[in-house]
Specification:
By secondary structure, the protein is mainly alpha-helical. It is built from 6 helices and no strands.
Amino acid sequence: MNPNDLDHRHAKLEADVHRLARSLPLRPASASLEARVLAAVAAQRAPRGVRSFESWSPFMRGAFLVAALGFAVASVWLLLPVPFGEVWTVLGDALTRVGSRSTALGDAVQTLGRLLFGALPEWVRVWGQLALLTFGAIYVATLAAGAAAWRWWQADGSTR
């Protein structure tokens, strides 16, 4: 079979279907069908960031939770007037108080905190705190810019 014949047959079939569809009388869709179609179109148009957390892939949910936990720990470290090594000790004590299951984890956190406290020079800790503070400020500024852009986009009334 010649490929040109196949292309010609597809083009002829398309033209025939188009002609047949144009010859049919116009009829309005039922209200329920119209509502379902409009809801499906609106659901497809929703940007990825507007969809709920459950629609994210498991990998992205895990990555977000790990990043949020890391940011929370860094924030506690920055905001509490406690030296770096003592933060881990305080966290270790809190985990130890949770129950007997967390005792081993608390000891591991305490040991890790003591190792890091002794291994890092003072300038690394200071610059680390400054880097986390800068990261937090940039993060907040990015959120503010995104919120402002979202409000502008909503106020514009466009359907981009």
